[in-house]
């Protein structure tokens, strides 16, 4: 999660919402990483999780990531939760709940939905304070810049 926080900082410094993600394999090896890139790539799907999932699948030459763990600083949105389910990810570890668009536990629970064909192990609240502080500080700075 520390590396995901570093990636989130890079995203925030580039004007993106500061979210970072890393994927490790069953041996703890780093397979892929991603940070939000929606603004830089002008791509609405360029969320940290999606970028990391794509890179991990490419690295493994398989879209099935059942032996992998994704660490992400913010609870995934509906799009990312759907991609995580489609990737058959083994475990999701996230930092802070997203009270607006969280689609793992907070607002809706896509992995536990009857529409989901995959059950996902989820661990939330890892480095929660650091993840929350990073997001809150970034948004506070953005609000000050607009005024």
TrEMBL record:
Pfam families: MafB19-deam. Binds 1 zinc ion per subunit. GO terms for biological process: tRNA wobble adenosine to inosine editing. Its cofactor is Zn(2+). Keywords: Hydrolase, Metal-binding, tRNA processing, Zinc. Zn(2+) binds at residues 47, 77, 80. The active site is at residue 49. Its EC number is 3.5.4.33. The keyword Zinc applies. InterPro entries: APOBEC/CMP_deaminase_Zn-bd, CMP_dCMP_dom, Cytidine_deaminase-like, MafB19-deam, tRNA_aden_deaminase. SUPFAM superfamilies: Cytidine deaminase-like. GO terms for molecular function: tRNA-specific adenosine-34 deaminase activity; zinc ion binding. It is an enzyme of class 3 (hydrolase). It comes from the Bacteria. It catalyses: adenosine(34) in tRNA + H2O + H(+) = inosine(34) in tRNA + NH4(+). Residues 1-123 form the CMP/dCMP-type deaminase domain. PANTHER family: CYTOSINE DEAMINASE FAMILY MEMBER, TRNA-SPECIFIC ADENOSINE DEAMINASE. HAMAP family: tRNA_aden_deaminase (MF_00972). Catalyzes the deamination of adenosine to inosine at the wobble position 34 of tRNA(Arg2). Homodimer. Belongs to the cytidine and deoxycytidylate deaminase family. ADAT2 subfamily. This is tRNA-specific adenosine deaminase.
């Amino acid at each position: 999660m520390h590396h995901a926080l570093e990636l989130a900082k890079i995203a925030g410094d580039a004007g993106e919402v500061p979210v970072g993600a890393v994927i490790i394999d069953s041996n703890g090896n780093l397979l892929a990483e991603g940070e939000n890139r929606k603004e830089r790539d002008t791509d609405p799907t360029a969320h940290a999780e999606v970028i990391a999932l794509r890179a991990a699948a490419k690295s493994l030459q398989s879209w099935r990531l059942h032996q992998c763990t994704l660490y992400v600083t913010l609870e995934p949105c509906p799009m990312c939760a759907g991609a995580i389910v489609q990737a058959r990810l083994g475990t999701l570890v996230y930092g802070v709940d997203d009270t607006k668009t969280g689609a793992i536990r907070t607002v809706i629970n896509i992995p536990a939905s009857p529409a989901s064909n995959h059950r996902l192990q989820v661990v939330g609240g890892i480095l929660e304070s650091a993840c929350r502080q990073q997001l809150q500080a970034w948004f506070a700075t953005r609000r000050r810049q607009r005024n």
